Amino acid sequence: MKNTYIICLSIWIGIVGQAFGQKASIKGQVNTTKNEPAIGANVILKGTVRGVQTNSKGEYLLKGLASGNYTIEVSYLGFKTKSFTIELAENQNSTNNFQLEEYGLTLGEVTFLTSRGIRGNETLTETKDFSIYAGKKNEVIKLDNINANLAMNNSRQIFGRTPGISVWENDGSGIQLGVASRGLSPNRSWEFNVRMNGYDITPDPMGYPEAYYTPPMEVVDRIEIVRGASSLQYGPQFGGLMNFILRKPDISTRLTFESQNTVGSNGLFSTFNYIGGTEGRLSYTAYYQKRVGNGWRDNGYFNTDHAHLEWSYALTKKFKLSTEITYMTTKSQQAGGLGDTQFHQNPRQSLRSRNWFNTPWLIPSISADYILNDKTKLSWKTFGTFAERNSVGFVKAINIPDDSSNRQVDRDYYKTYGTELRILTDYKLFGLNNTLATGLRYFKGQIDRKQLGKGDTGSEMNYDLAEGLYPRDLDYRNINRAAFAENIFRINKKLLFTAGLRVENINSQMEGRFNIVNGQDINLSPATRQRNFLLLGAGAEYHIIPRSEIYSNFSEAYRPVLISDLTPPATTDVIDQTLKDAKGYNFDIGYRGKMSNFLNFDINYFNLQYNNRIGTITQISNGQSYQFRTNLGRSVSKGFEAYVEFDPVSAFMTSPKAGNLSIFASLAFIDATYKDFKTTTINNGQIITGNLAGNRVENAPAQINRFGATFAKKGFSITWQLSSVGETFADAANNRISNTAATTGLIPSYQVQDLSASLKFLKNYNLKAGVNNLTNEHYFTRRSGGYPGPGILPADGRIVYISGGVKF
Questions:
Q1: Is 225 within 8 Å of 139 (Cβ atoms)?
Q2: Across residues 12-23, what is the average pLDDT?
Q3: How far is residue 261's CA from residue 272's CA, in Å, rounded to a whole number?
Q4: Can you tell me whether residue 122 is helix, strand or coil?
Q5: How many angstroms from the chain centroid is the CA of residue 278?
Q6: Domains annotated on the chain, with CATH
């Protein structure tokens, strides 16, 4: 054992010694053809893990390099990529400057030149990092490109340019995100595979996928969204992938410091503070955000703290090691639901003053990137989640007054571990240039659920039990093993095909106490479910011109039976022992592209088949009725999505002195209907069967349209946005008239306007301000059947904010 330690220590000393002994460097300047500095251009050494971005003067510096041959590649949005090969001697300091050429596009006799007027969404390249995105419907939301209330994570603005995204706007604190697409449920984004920097941040994507953690948008660099076609490489969810990419350590300077402080309506105060930098092979970043406020409604309050630390070190030019740790703690008072009459009288009122919610969240991760050679690279990530979901309150129907009795306490404890290995390799076969992405995944999740506890009669956040035990005390364990492979076959420079598969193995276990009746434990029979799946997918992409393409993709998808599906609401309810996972597919075909940098568009048709949907029907046994949870039918979501953004000033002026005007439209027309879904009711002791075929899927608006315009000149920009969302229903029966508890019924259409502006001055300072819900519309997007309702959960009215920041 002692010899092993000595050998390991010698290897480590050798690696570190080699790293610090390498003194060579490459520096230079990157300019445009107008001799303007290319700020934020990417400068990478191909075939290595090393790369930087240019600073505010267009300068770059790569230090700590070994001698040898390097290929420098410089890329910048809207400009042609340039590369250059250099031979670097020991201790050599080499200077290499670059001048980038603009893309140009000729239509008839008119030549349009690139400008930087378009500020909207981008798309992922054919391959990026260790994944394949060719042929897939995807969007990249660059947070720097939009004016929005980032301090409050205003999702209506953040996803404004992403067609088809429905948003639940019932939590103005910005703590949790509830979004979906294509007629799926926005409930805590659980139809998406939600990740941060490529790893899971939900309690258990295969058993309890609710996203209780959302990173502060002030630290998010971009949000990558891949619709259902992500099921092969990231996970089989019908909604696809939503990946929050945090700002990476500033690789242009040794130290960057940033502080952004925001105040606003209802006592809002937010402070965001960030440091980061690069010194040779070491890069680091850290941030802290605190956000407090009273909320728009009565009995509302939130107090959140976020902290994140990340560092990475290039041990060699081919091997980089990184680690991250993220922590969040929250304290949130929930105003509860309203009845329809109460909402119309005063949506700010609250009938619940004792409801509290809390989600402490800790996410550590370690990752390693290794470049095997010019053609092959490898990535390994391991991560975990140690978190809680805690609630206390009076949660009976909204038509039952709070009588100051004992509150209900529910607590979940999450402990998960996961690891993923990915390999991306380029190779030639039959003279064709191909790319293969393969990977392995292991995930283990454990949830300890304690519910229905008898809490105190107070009004503060307190999760201690007043007496007894938790009547419901359940343990869930989930183990997920998966392997995938997807390949790009490039037929020529214009045409490519993709094909792939994913193999899944899921083992779920459940045991524990369901209830305590007359002092006796009612235990669930320990249950184990194991299943294997094979998912297939294929796609294609055809480039009509270099910057526009037709794309199409077909990918199978599934949603495993969730913890909520296996837990009966009442002791008499019965779960179908042959309950099947939901399975179906996503299909896309579309056309997207750019005309220089003044026009950006993406128009597509989609079809989502959702089979084996789970529901509850009434059965009678021995004269007694009971609820039976089983697979009842299927639904289909189909329609069109379109995103168009146009800058008329840049289109016809080579050097627009008056500024740039970006006009966008994000449109979605969704037909989400049940094709078969059995129902039952009881009439005079007899079961009457029915079917929801032809009904619209609940929480699925038929239209989601957003329009906006941004004017920008030098350091100033201002954005106006209109969101227009069609009506939908809170239940599958499509009841237009609400029940007494306001948990079912119509969710009316609504239109909301937002106005945001920003000003950068004296190089290092900025001012931001805005008004959300400009015309103070009263509307709601959700009728809740459980916590924090029940009842109507109103969206926020008019909110005003102003923010000041500094960056050095």
A1: yes
A2: 46
A3: 6
A4: strand
A5: 27
A6: 20-102 (2.60.40.1120), 127-243 (2.170.130.10), 244-772+785-807 (2.40.170.20)
Does residue 328 contact residue 313 with C-beta atoms inside 8 Å? no
- pLDDT over threshold 80, residue 218: yes
pLDDT in tens, 653-668: 766 677 889 999 999 9
Give the torsion sign (CA, 224, 228, 233, 237): positive
Question: 791 CB contacts (<8 Å, ≥6 apart)?
Answer: 336, 337, 338, 339, 397, 398, 741, 742, 743, 783, 784
Q: Which of 396, 295, 390, 305 minimizes the C-alpha distance to 349?
A: 295
Q: pLDDT band at 615, cuts 50/70/90?
A: confident
pLDDT for res 196: 96
- pLDDT of 23 > 80? The answer is no
Distance CA(711)–CA(278), nearest Å, equals: 34
Task: List the single range of 78-87, 161-170, 390-399 with lowest mean pLDDT.
Answer: 78-87
Return the H-helix or E-strand segment holding 649. Answer: helix 648-652
pLDDT value of position 655:
65
- Surface-to-core class of residue 520, CB atoms within 10 Å of its CB (0-12 exposed, 13-18 middle, 19+ buried): exposed
**Ramachandran area for residue 622 (φ above 0: left; ψ -120 to 50: alpha; else beta):** left
Q: Could you tell me which residues come within 8 angstroms of residue 527 by beta carbon, excluding any fewer than 6 positions away?
A: 509, 510, 511, 566
Give yes or no for residue 670 having a pLDDT over 70: yes
* Gap between the Cα atoms of 674 and 209, Å rounded: 24
For residues 708-720, b (16+ Cβ closer than 10 Å) or e, as one string? Answer: bebbbeeeebbbb
Q: Tokens 């980038």 appear where? A: 100
3-state SS assignment for residue 206: coil
Q: Are 659 and 712 in contact (CB under 8 A)?
A: yes
- Strand order through the sheet with 240-246: 138-142, 220-226, 240-246, 192-196, 199-200
DSSP 7: H
Say which range, 97-106, 173-182, 385-394, has the weakest mean pLDDT.
97-106
The phi, psi pair for 595, rounded to 5°, reads -110, 105
- DSSP-derived secondary structure letter, 102: B
741-768 per-residue burial string, b: 16 or more CB within 10 A, e: under 16: bbbbbbbeebebbbbbbbebeeeeebeb
What whole-number distance in Å separates Cα of residue 462 and Cα of residue 5? 49
pLDDT, position 66: 83
The strand pair at 765-772 and 750-761 is best described as: antiparallel
**Please, which pLDDT band fits residue 48 given cuts at 50, 70 and 90?**
confident
**Cβ contacts of 398 within 8 Å, gap of 6 or more:** 336, 337, 338, 339, 342, 351, 741, 742, 789, 790, 791
CA distance 98 to 115: 19
Mean pLDDT within 494-509: 95
* In contact, 180 and 200? CB cutoff 8 Å: no
Q: Using CB atoms within 10 A of its CB, is residue 364 exposed (0-12), middle (13-18) or buried (19+)?
A: middle
The span from the CA of 199 to the CA of 193, in Å, is 10
Rounded to whole angstroms, the Cα distance separating 363 from 369 reads 20
If phi > 0 it is left, if psi is from -120 to 50 it is alpha, else beta; for residue 776 that is: left
CA dist 275 and 263 (Å) reads 22
Q: Quick one: pLDDT band at residue 629, thresholds 50, 70, 90?
A: confident
The per-residue pLDDT for 101 is: 80
- pLDDT, average across residues 313-334: 94
Query: Residue 473's beta-bridge partner residues?
Result: 450, 513
- Residue 345 — left, alpha, or beta (φ > 0 → left; ψ -120 to 50 → alpha)? alpha
Give Cα separations from 710 to 342, 361, 577 (angstroms): 38, 36, 55
Alpha helices in 489-633 (DSSP H): 563-566
Per-residue pLDDT tens for 102-120? 654 333 333 333 334 556 6
